[in-house]
Amino acid sequence: MRSFFKTKTAIALALSVAAGTATAEDVEVLHWWTSGGEAAALNVLKQDLEGQGIGWTDMPVAGGGGEQAMTVLRARVTAGNAPTAVQGLGFDIIDWADQGSLANLNDVAAAEGWDDVVPAALQQFAKVNGEWVSAPVNVHSTNWVWANKAVLDANGIAMPETWDDFVAAMDTLSAAGITPIAHGGQAWQEATVFDSVVMSVLGPDGYKAAFIDLDADVLGSDGMKEAFDRMSVIRANVDDNFSGRDWNLATAMVINGDAGFQMMGDWAKGEFINAGKVPGEDFLCFRFPGTSEQVTFNADQFMMFDQGGAVSAEQAALATAILSPSFQSAFNVVKGSVPARTDVSNEAFDACGKKGMADLAAAASSGNLFGSMAHGHANPASVKNAIYDVVTAHFNGEYDSETAVQELVDAVDIAK
Ligand code: BGC
Q1: What is the CATH code of the structural domain delimited by 8-140+299-354?
Q2: What are phi and psi of 399, to 5 degrees?
Q3: Minimal-distance CA residue to ligand 1 atom 12
Q4: Mean pLDDT (whole number) for 28-44
Q5: Ligand 1 centroid to 236 CA: how many Å?
Q6: Mean pLDDT for the chain overall
Q7: pTM (2 decimals)?
Q8: What is the predicted pLDDT for the residue at 24?
Q9: What is the per-residue pLDDT for 7?
Q10: Mutation test residue for ligand 1: of 31, 32, 141, the one with most atoms within 8 Å of CB
Q11: What class is the 141-296+368-415 domain?
Q12: Whose CA is nearest to atom 9 of ligand 1?
């Protein structure tokens, strides 16, 4: 028998009953939110739970994009010691559900009406075979560019609208002795940039055909070669110390005026906000040139690992807290993402957050919303990692663009 909880009051009651008869357990939360902005957002969740008398055991695993966290998770599950709740993305959630590792959240979802307020794009990863298996926290998107406004103004650069504008802006910064692009040389970061570049060259149909349908003709097309050529242009505009740099340190380069632009998901905004910067005054957010109508999204969710029986009272309370409209607003304002519910007001959000919410709604209704390849929302980890390997090898000069295209076709074919 699964959870009996029907309302928040009932959950609170059950918790106090549980507390009277046995020690209420802490939740142990495995996540990769370790940068300044991410930690500030996580704190919103910790405090929410603490307010309900639920203890928090933190299990941070550093590493943007979550690859390291997933490795630790696999080891913990294999050892029969799964954490209570785990940050997860897209196809990874489906994999864990298919393996029978996740608790069924249907009762919480029904009591809280998740079916009506969580958009379909997220439900495809949160609900597996009709069972809610994770609680969506947010919606991020990857096709953003972040710019230092003072640097752009000082160099007479307007917000680039086309790839040619963007190249001209990079040239101007280079000539002025400023690093045009802040980049961290890690495979997931290169893949994040590639999401935008492929969307800009191949358009929404091409992005879908290449990354979601894994169509060999499109993966091997001239357009894909052009996308790799653009990656080479970007590579030529990063500084010499990019290898291995964490994404938030690259963001700091833009915040400090040491670089002009960073292509990164909107978790980067959390770093600007955490540094006290204001959109429109200190920094600019805009969609990667050529992708103004598209959104390549990823959504953080918390999977509740089956602890041997029904979902626990603490897991139910965590899931309920995550989906509450007030938490969705408070958390996402800090995190840089937008709410995972369609009924949350944009009032508390800054200009970039409001734009993020409007872009997401518009893209969803015009058929321009696609799962991010780089962040596990286009295909399972095996395919994602195969694409990472090729993109990163090309970025580091191991392949020219033509070879990269052929390697991409072959690697995807083997992995799928
Ligand atoms: C997650 C974000 C996180 C980013 C960098 C992404 O995969 O969805 O929540 O901030 O990685 O760590």
Answers
A1: 3.40.190.10
A2: -125, 145
A3: 64
A4: 97
A5: 26
A6: 94
A7: 0.94
A8: 54
A9: 42
A10: 32
A11: alpha beta
A12: 300
